[in-house]
């Protein structure tokens, strides 16, 4: 008998077909995420879960679903999973690092450029028929090339953005991270490690790419925004909650900050109403990794992880990216 697996949202049909070769599948066919209660009900008797970032796994869910063995997240960020609780319950969790690095960095750069150069504001201006004339100061924005980029959180994506900034746009790159990069990673992107306060004070453009956790909750709040240049921009492609959206909206409204590019929001898909009113905020619906190739790669990698984590397929017992490999050790 095939093990039972739950898929929390629809994904590519070919990925579902691959999963169906190994598992008896139940797929959420709705065009919305299940509520926590629905998820718990559907997860009964399932050994595996193909999890999209629209649902969460916590200790209460694990207690209620004792058959669960593997949770494969279709995302690199895994703040939707209580990993220590999974480990305590003997549940393996996996994510999808690496495959989305470059496309997410591209999008972060696009958002930063759009915010600095008032791209969406200019487009709204044109489409609404307000473009009646040329004037010397129409839609003047902020320079990007040859300015200073501040990267907050220097993981894979942060490094990919720093490379674009340094090699492509002649920017100086400063960064802050829990730990400093080894010299062989710093050197090619000419990135300079600084304290958080110096990062905020010196950067012309701040790129937030730090994972969300209890420690990074509101890591960029009113006090941090107050340190930044009035001419600076802030781009968040990490997670809602790393930036205090209400404080950011205040700073943007009062022009204590020039502009922001935001792909992620606290409590998304709800967006802070004050942000929606602001011309100097470029807002996108959590799509930084959304290219056809990258989403296929993420979906495929989550499937690889689930199949291998469940002890099936050529990689049985050796999933590509376990978050709590100690669980595998206890199984072996
Ligand atoms: C998307 O936000 C991801 O974490 O992959
Ligand atoms: C702008 O279009 C310029 O030619 O400077």
TrEMBL record:
Coiled coil: none annotated. Belongs to the D-isomer specific 2-hydroxyacid dehydrogenase family. It comes from the Bacteria. The keyword Transit peptide does not apply. GO terms for cellular component: cytosol. This is 2-hydroxyacid dehydrogenase. Pfam families: 2-Hacid_dh, 2-Hacid_dh_C. PROSITE patterns: D_2_HYDROXYACID_DH_1. InterPro entries: D-isomer_2-hydroxyacid_DH (IPR050223), D-isomer_2_OHA_DH_cat_dom (IPR006139), D-isomer_DH_CS1 (IPR029752), D-isomer_DH_NAD-bd (IPR006140), NAD(P)-bd_dom_sf (IPR036291). It comes from Caldimonas brevitalea. One of its GO terms (molecular function) is hydroxypyruvate reductase [NAD(P)H] activity. Residues 109-288 form the D-isomer specific 2-hydroxyacid dehydrogenase NAD-binding domain. Keywords: NAD, Oxidoreductase. The keyword Oxidoreductase applies. Residues 5-310 form the D-isomer specific 2-hydroxyacid dehydrogenase catalytic domain.
